[in-house]
Predict the 3D structure of the following.
Amino acid sequence: MSSDNFNLHENEFQRIEAILAKMQNELRAQLVLLISRSGQPIVISGPAESIDCTALASLAAANLAATDSLANIVGERDFSVLVHQGRRRSLFISDLLKRFSLVLVFDASASSGLVRYKCKRTTLLLEDVIRDFQRRIEKAEPVMSIPQFTDEEIEELLGRQNINEPFN
Amino acid sequence: MTFINYVAREINCKIVYYGPGLGGKTTNLQYIYQITSAENKGKLISLATETERTLFFDFLPIDFGQIRGFRTRFHLYTVPGQVFYDSSRKLILKGVDGVVFVADSQEERLDANLESVSNLAANLKEQGFDIAKIPYVLQLNKRDLPSAMPADELQRQLLVKGEPVIEAVATQGVGVLTTLKAVARQVLVELRKSA
């Protein structure tokens, strides 16, 4: 587990946030997310009140994973981009270095060619940021440490889930 | 892949409930959903067939509260238990932090349990994990059924590495939360070790 852990630090978060906000602005997208391939939302940009971003991230990651397998079945290495076109809203999901994905919710009336073009550019910018923090991890730069909570703190956290179970 | 966001001060972990078909994985999540307060849970998403068998996965995000100022979120997933959905099971294990194996205690399901444990080990390996090292809990479910095997015998057959074993009746909620806490504890301890 530990080697795959992903720790996002403030400067990286801000760089990603700025990139996503710029794209959201340029495309007037309703929502832009960077998610992990395991389905966790990492950075969110947009007024997302009506959209459950946690569920969206989980389903988008599963969708992309299933699509990768479909690609393999038909002899393709991958399908790196997924577009779902709706009547009011459309969804664009793009792979990012096989560890992350870019998810975009946009108005169905927007030009899909423009969306595709901007997403490609944004993907390249995000890849730079991700490569930077991969370099940081490889060099094991001690920028921030994993919180060293004690056994007592863990038990206290678990104890708060204090709904009484039916007696066994 | 535990994701720690130092800006939002969040720890996000992924737990997968694995096991043979009709063993009670979805029931575990449904019970957790039912007893968790609205502010500490997200939507329970079930991608199921029209007969309510899990087709791809169930998903439930749960917020455990704060530890050292970090909000801890556990994303709970189930896999489809039916043998022919193996491709889907592999996908769900991507980036997993901890696994709960939900065994069906009925004697006639022993072979299905054994096959599923073996399938789990193989699929974890394919995703780069070692079942001997990953946080792991064995839940013996359906303890209330007349054909349930003795717990010690079932444990002897299914134990992988001295993992915590919890007896459960998921339909009544017995052992469900204890199981979740047991795997969450291991995930947090493992996370601390990775510093």
